[in-house]
Amino acid sequence: MKKSSQAQEGYFMLETLLTGVFLLLMASSLGLYAKAVSVKNTAAEQTAAVFLARAQISYAQCRLDRDGILPPDLPYLGNEQDLRQNNRTYQIESHISQKGRHYELQVTVRWEVQGCDKNVAFKRVLSRHEVQAGTGNRPA
């Protein structure tokens, strides 16, 4: 009878050890989950900022093609609702300097995350697209 009691004690010890290891794994995976959520939110914020900057560059190119000139500072030309995404409000600054027939455009997108200012900036050289002779169409 003593053998059976010792065997049961061994199983109880093994169960306790496995339960402890399982709880440690669960606790450590909670940290990984929190980090994954943080990375996902950061990626979403940066993706929205890149989208807004690329949209502003496209709007500036369209305005240059239409008007033939760009002002030194250009407000966001898209929909105001675009500036509010992912529970954040984005600000866009566009500074333009003329270099001969070309324009150097710098677009900076700013937003705030937990009291820290974040930003992403892009530079692009823009030129007016010329109308192809005899077609009345702009090149593709």
Q: How would you describe what is shown here?
A:
By secondary structure, this protein is an alpha+beta fold. It has one domain (2-127). 47% of the residues lie in helices and 26% in strands. It is built from 1 helix and 5 strands. It has one helix at 2-67; strands spanning 84-85, 88-89, 91-99, 102-113, 116-127. The strands form 2 sheets. Strands 3-4-5 form a 3-stranded antiparallel sheet, covered by helices on one side. The protein has a two-stranded antiparallel ribbon with strand order 1-2. A hairpin with a 2-residue loop joins strand 1 and strand 2. The termini are far apart. This is Prepilin-type N-terminal cleavage/methylation domain-containing protein. The chain crosses the membrane at residues 12-34.
Query: pLDDT under 50 segments (min length 5)?
Result: none
Count of distinct structural domains: 1
Shape: rod-shaped
Strand content: 25-35%
Alpha-carbon distance between the two ends: 91 Å
| Helix count from the secondary structure assignment | 1
Record the SSE blueprint:
Elements: H1 2-67, E1 84-85, E2 88-89, E3 91-99, E4 102-113, E5 116-127
Antiparallel strand pairs: 1-2, 3-4, 4-5
Keywords: Membrane, Transmembrane, Transmembrane helix
Organism: Selenomonas ruminantium
Transmembrane segments: 12-34
Describe the structure concisely for a colleague:
This is Prepilin-type N-terminal cleavage/methylation domain-containing protein. The chain has 1 helix and 5 strands. With 140 residues, the chain is of the alpha+beta class.
